[in-house]
């Protein structure tokens, strides 16, 4: 069964002024769709792999035949990462969006980083330094939250890590509005983080 692009869970312009509508439309309709088209094409003759959820597909890339492994890693990763990313955001100033973390993740952040400001600083500084295209992530491993980055569309899932929160720092995610100012995009992005979804994912990561 081929993967399909789910509609955004809000309007293209819903994340303004932090992320502009034109960027969201291109990012979702063109970039995310292209990852889906490419992974579907690669799996056309592999119905056993195509039957997996995209997260399960990329959890163990060794089970993917070598001739399509790089395509699946890049485009299956792109589909998984963006599917999570859209849900991890929402319109600023709505309940549970932006502002301080809520629920279980708030306590875990306090425990592992001291406070939310310290976690944001670590996340933003680490992710700003990711060379070229990639992602910044918050993962839960060994009983603690940790900030990591991955290059390209590599998913933490392929390293046995479950991403709780992630931000896309490919230029396509921010260039129209922020140009070369990745740190400004990173700083603004916290206004649209969906803490309910972060908490949901944190619950899954804790298992
Ligand atoms: Mn992207």
In short:
With 207 residues, this protein is mainly α. It is built from nine helices and three strands, in the order ααααααβββααα.
How does this structure look, described?
- By secondary structure, the chain is mainly α.
- The protein folds into two domains: 68 residues, Helix Hairpins; 104 residues, minor pseudopilin epsh fold (3-Layer(bab) Sandwich).
- Helix content is 49%, strand content 11%.
- A hairpin with a 2-residue loop joins strand 1 and strand 2.
- Helix 6 packs antiparallel against helix 8.
- The mean pLDDT is 97.
- The structure holds manganese (III) ion.
Choose one word for the global shape.
globular
Report the average pLDDT across residues.
Answer: 97
Fourth-level CATH superfamily of the largest domain: Iron/manganese superoxide dismutase, C-terminal domain
Total E-strand runs: 3
Low-confidence stretches: none
CATH topology of the largest domain: minor pseudopilin epsh fold
Order of helices and strands: HHHHHHEEEHHH
DSSP helix fraction? 40-55%
Q: What structural class should be given to the helix and strand makeup? A: mainly alpha
Heteromolecules bound: manganese (III) ion
From the N-terminal CA to the C-terminal CA, the straight-line distance is 28 Å
Overall radius of gyration: 17 Å
Topology (elements, then pairings):
Elements: H1 21-42, H2 47-50, H3 54-59, H4 66-87, H5 103-113, H6 116-128, E1 134-141, E2 144-151, E3 163-168, H7 175-178, H8 182-189, H9 195-206
Antiparallel strand pairs: 1-2, 1-3
Helix pairs in contact: 1-4, 6-8
């Amino acid at each position: 069964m081929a993967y399909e692009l789910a509609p955004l869970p809000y309007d293209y312009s819903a994340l303004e002024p932090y992320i502009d509508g034109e960027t969201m439309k291109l990012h979702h309709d063109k970039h995310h769709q292209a990852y889906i088209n490419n992974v579907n094409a690669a799996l056309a003759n592999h119905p056993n792999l195509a039957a997996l959820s995209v997260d399960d597909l990329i959890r163990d890339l060794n089970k993917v035949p070598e001739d399509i492994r790089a395509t699946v890693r890049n485009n299956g990763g792109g589909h998984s990462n963006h599917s999570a990313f859209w849900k991890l955001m929402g319109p600023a100033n709505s309940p549970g969006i932006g502002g301080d973390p809520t629920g279980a993740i708030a306590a875990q952040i306090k425990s592992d980083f001291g406070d939310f400001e310290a976690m944001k600083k670590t996340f933003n500084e680490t992710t700003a330094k990711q060379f070229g295209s990639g992602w910044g992530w918050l993962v839960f491993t060994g009983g603690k939250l940790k900030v990591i980055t991955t290059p390209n569309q590599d998913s933490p899932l392929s390293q046995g890590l479950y991403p709780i929160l992630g931000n896309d720092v490919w230029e396509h995610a921010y260039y129209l509005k922020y140009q070369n100012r990745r740190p400004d995009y990173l700083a603004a992005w916290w206004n649209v983080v969906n803490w309910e979804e972060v908490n949901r994912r944190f619950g899954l990561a804790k298992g």
